[in-house]
Request: fold
Amino acid sequence: MIHHKNSVSIKTSDPELRNQLEAMVGSAGNLRVLAAGNKERPDLLIFELSEKFDEEFKRLQALLNSNSVGEIFLTSKNKDTDLLLKTMKTGAKAFFPQPIDPSEVSEALSSFIQRVTQAAPPGGHRSQGQIIHVMGAKGGVGTTTVSVNLARILAQKTGPGSVALVDMNSVYGEVPLFLSLKPAYHWGEISKNIKRLDTTFLMNVLTRHPSGVHILPSPAYLNGHPPATPEIMESLLNLMRKTFDYVIIDGGQSLDGSSIKSIEMSEHVLLISLLSLPCLANTNKLLRSLSNVGIVPDGRVKIIINRFLKNSDISQEEAQGSVKNNIFWRIPNDYKVTMSAINQGKALCDISPKAPITRNLTELAESLTGSEMMDFNKNKKRKGFLFFK
Ligand SMILES: Nc1ncnc2c1ncn2[C@@H]1O[C@H](COP(=O)(O)OP(=O)(O)OP(=O)(O)O)[C@@H](O)[C@H]1O
Ligand SMILES: [Mg+2]
Reply:
């Protein structure tokens, strides 16, 4: 039977809370509550955490990872801040401290309805994915390492077919090497055939990594293909963000017209730098160049320090002073693991899932894709209600 209403499963051992939540779901419109024991995949799970919340977080995370549930809202009698942090990390979309406030629940339910009705039906993708442009302040700072691993981590979180990785290095792009791929096609195919570009053509050109990340590599050698223009870039990225939830661009150090277009269209621009004088000086020049073309270093442009060492000669404060901007993130130095990943042609989470650098990049991915959730920290007045669109 085809249901047109989205399904909600409520899991709590408290009958009074269950009644209260059922009534709220019922009055939200266009939602139906699944009876206890119904095995149908819920579009939304509202779950009451018990004292064994650590175990429950693991189970909930597994449900989200395997796509056995659409979204999760959590509630608890416990108002511990540790619990709130864990809620954020799990990927739950809302947290209601008890006693629950009906207006908060109904606000979260109407946003849920808005999200599911906006999602494009065929692949279950949202109507508009996020573009994350990664660029280096200098060569060799780790732009490809960050791009490849962000894409791989996001694919693990969101499922196959949801992430694309575009290599914008004009030639000699290294994305295929980092992932042991031998792509049949590259950028040139898109530039040559831009008039034919549609989803079917795009999917045929992309190379699929076993993790589900779809790759568009750059040409392996100069071969006379027409270059990517800003217009080509715009058409390509418009189509890609309709097709994928996340599009990661390895932008190298390029600031040509097509890179500027990609930067303009991105939700996040990650500027990778190191705590070294030449690198910070280049970061400064790059920020200036961007602001000369109207891209001011606002929250969208994020400075990331790679290969961070605690006992560095230059402190974070000095670096911030020198680039006149905040540092958004620091990635720890781990030459052994990053080099071993590159030499094996594997992502960090496939060879060293527990390494601090892998965990750090996973947290970076979470903070970029769940950034609305972090706004909660700025808005503590809302009684611990945690919610992100
Ligand atoms: N966090 C890190 N800790 C230690 N070494 C790192 C780290 N990130 C990257 N590296 C090392 O830096 C080198 C360059 O990395 P990568 O190829 O990703 O940089 P890039 O900026 O893309 O370089 P290019 O300018 O050649 O495209 C590699 O040997 C990699 O192992
Ligand atoms: Mg590179």
Notes: The chain has 16 helices and 14 strands. Residues 6-118 form a domain with the Rossmann fold fold (CATH 3.40.50.2300). The CA atoms of residues 69 and 257 lie 42 Å apart.
